[in-house]
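#struct-pred
JK: can someone run the complex with coenzyme A? inputs below
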Amino acid sequence: MSELLNHLYGQQHRLCTTPSGQVTLVLSRDREIDLIELEQLCDAVGWSRRPLRRVRRALQNSLLLVGLWRHDPRLPKLVGFARCTGDGVIDATIWDVAVHPRYQGAGLGKQLMHYVLDALRQQQVQRVSLFADPEVIGFYAAQGWELEPLERRCAFWYAS
Ligand SMILES: CC(C)(COP(=O)(O)OP(=O)(O)OC[C@H]1O[C@@H](n2cnc3c(N)ncnc32)[C@H](O)[C@@H]1OP(=O)(O)O)[C@@H](O)C(=O)NCCC(=O)NCCS
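RT: done, structure tokens with the ligand placed:
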């Protein structure tokens, strides 16, 4: 089994623990992310669509892509995702954290975040940031993320 998992998900994969334990869920930073599957996942969590061409380039330019896969020896299914951008040394930013609604509430989002942070730690990244949607702030705060302490410290520039 472990040989198969290494083949499908790479040597740095991590098995997730779930309350039911009925399905095997695997975190991987090596298995290639299919754009259509990612779009379906983003649809499922209610995010607005982005042009696939641009998403492809964004993934190519990312520092780290993590997939959460429902294991199937023939066709693993993408049920969660997160990615990071950054310089790979000092700073990284986490984007697009999502767990398919069918798999939410089982501790998978938390395991996904741990896996991402462990991977960044391996790269010795010193500071990690993210932008939380208002309804998810509690999810990150409970995992020890510090909210912007002095409001109005973040600055943004939008192209349009
Ligand atoms: C946010 C998200 C990734 C969480 O994934 P999940 O697998 O449901 O989360 P977990 O089951 O690992 O939850 C871990 C803990 O966070 C809590 N939690 C989960 N979602 C939460 C939320 N929206 N607000 C506050 N706490 C939350 C859980 O109750 C759990 O608490 P516990 O450890 O005390 O039991 C998932 O709900 C999701 O994909 N949401 C839609 C997309 C989204 O909003 N992404 C974030 C963009 S910034």
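RT: quick notes.
The longest helix spans residues 108-122.
Residues 2-131 form a domain with the Aminopeptidase fold (CATH 3.40.630.30).
JK: thanks, will look after standup
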